[in-house]
Amino acid sequence: MDDSQVAKTITNFPQLMGCSLDENLKPMVQWLKELGMDDSQVAKTITNFPQLMGCSLDENLKPMVQWLKELGMDDSQVAKTITMFPNLIGSVSLEENLQPKVQWLKELGMDDSQ
Questions:
Q1: Integer Cα distance of 104 and 27 in angstroms
Q2: pTM across the whole model
Q3: What contacts 102, CB < 8 A, 6 or more positions away?
Q4: Max intra-chain CA distance, the chain
Q5: Could you say which DSSP state residue 110 is in?
Q6: From its phi and psi, is residue 32 left (phi > 0), alpha (psi between -120 and 50) or beta?
Q7: Phi and psi at residue 107, in whole multiples of 5°?
Q8: For position 1, what pLDDT does the model report?
């Protein structure tokens, strides 16, 4: 991340400075990279939605990614989705928001092949 990205990230989520480097920040970046993100995608994701760094991997993010994969997304699609709209996995409720919308889309006749 360049200086402007760091400044934007801290300005938008100063709580980041209270997160543990070894218990929160490094594991989060490593997990994002394991999803297939490159360094520029990780930087873009953190800059655009720094609150993601304060989310629980086990309680929030991993279940959301697992659900996206169950919908048929592969790792590269998940990585692209998170890069483009990181609040999807960091702030949107799976049960209250996403599952009803997917169910509605299915009721419209969409299936996995579309």
A1: 35
A2: 0.80
A3: 71
A4: 47
A5: -
A6: alpha
A7: -70, -25
A8: 86
The string of DSSP letters for 1-61 reads: --HHHHHHHHHH-GGGGGS-IIIIIHHHHHHHHHTT--HHHHHHHHHH-GGGGGS-IIIII
What does the radius of gyration of the chain's CA atoms come to, in whole angstroms?
15
C-beta atoms surrounding 69 within 10 Å: 13
Q: Which of 13-17, 98-102, 110-114 is least confident? A: 110-114
- Tokens linked to 73: 């997304």
Q: pLDDT grade, residue 94 (50/70/90)?
A: confident
Q: Measured at the alpha carbon of residue 42, what is the angle toward residues 71 and 63, in degrees to the nearest 5?
A: 35
Task: Read off the pLDDT of residues 37-82 as tens digits, 9 standing for 90 and up.
Answer: 999 999 999 999 999 998 889 988 899 999 999 999 998 899 999 8
